[in-house]
Amino acid sequence: MYNKHMKAMGVFLIVLFIVTVPSFAEDQPSAYDIITKMKADCNLQEDQVTHITPIIEKYAIVWHDFQRSIDDGTINQSAIDAQGQQIKAAEAQELSPYLKPYQITQWNYIQGQMAPKKDKDSRNADTDEYSNLPRNSGGP
User: Fold this and answer.
1) Residue 125 has what pLDDT?
2) How far apart are CA 35 and CA 111, in angstroms?
3) Residue 7: which pLDDT band, with cuts at 50, 70 and 90?
4) Quick one: 32 exposed, middle or buried, by C-beta within 10 A (0-12, 13-18, 19+)?
5) Would residue 11 count as lying in a domain?
6) Using CB atoms within 10 A of its CB, is residue 134 exposed (0-12), middle (13-18) or buried (19+)?
7) Which residue has the higher pLDDT, 97 or 129?
8) Is 49 or 75 the better-scoring residue by pLDDT?
9) Residue 55 lies in a domain
10) Number of structural domains, the chain?
11) What distance in Å separates the CA atoms of residue 69 and residue 87, rounded to the nearest whole number?
């Protein structure tokens, strides 16, 4: 009985270590953070968590690498949106067999909150080349 518990604890610690290894990008959530958020916000069952964990871990790395290529300028700026949409679509396709429609909708929302930024100057969508001009607040 003791060996079973020790073996289970060892497996748990290995999984915990793999999942909680900190992300290199400060603003990129870890796979563990994503799974925790999905578990709560999407009301996932344990079997769903088991199925999606390797997918989330895989795409956490993909998204991290994508963000790094944006940050260091190695990706063509005109390709960022298209490549991001391709990654998102591939991830959604892999997750969809394990999520219910309302969970997919919630996942899309969560993913939108974590979307990589094109560059550090475009964080404010209202910014343009004439950003020093007064903003029109919708009134005359």
Assistant:
1) 41
2) 12
3) low
4) buried
5) no
6) exposed
7) 97
8) 49
9) yes
10) 1
11) 14
- Cα separation of 43 and 41, whole Å? 6
Could you report the per-residue pLDDT of 83-100, keeping only the tens digit for each?
A: 999 999 999 999 999 999
For residue 26, how far is the Cα from the chain centroid?
A: 13
Domain region containing 87: 28-116
Question: Is residue 49 predicted with pLDDT exceeding 50?
Answer: yes
Considering only CA atoms, give the Rg of the chain.
Answer: 19
CA dist 71 and 91 (Å) reads 22
Kindly report the average pLDDT of the chain as a whole number. Answer: 75
Q: What is the pLDDT of residue 86?
A: 94
What is the secondary structure of the chain as a DSSP string?
-HHHHHHHHHHHHHHHHHHHSPPSSTTSPPHHHHHHHHHHHTT--HHHHHHHHHHHHHHHHHHHHHHHHHHTT-S-GGGHHHHHHHHHHHHHHHHGGGS-HHHHHHHHHHHHHTPPPS-GGGSSTT--TTTTSPPP-S--
Which pLDDT score is estimated for 116? 54
Query: What are 18's two structure tokens?
Result: 């793999």
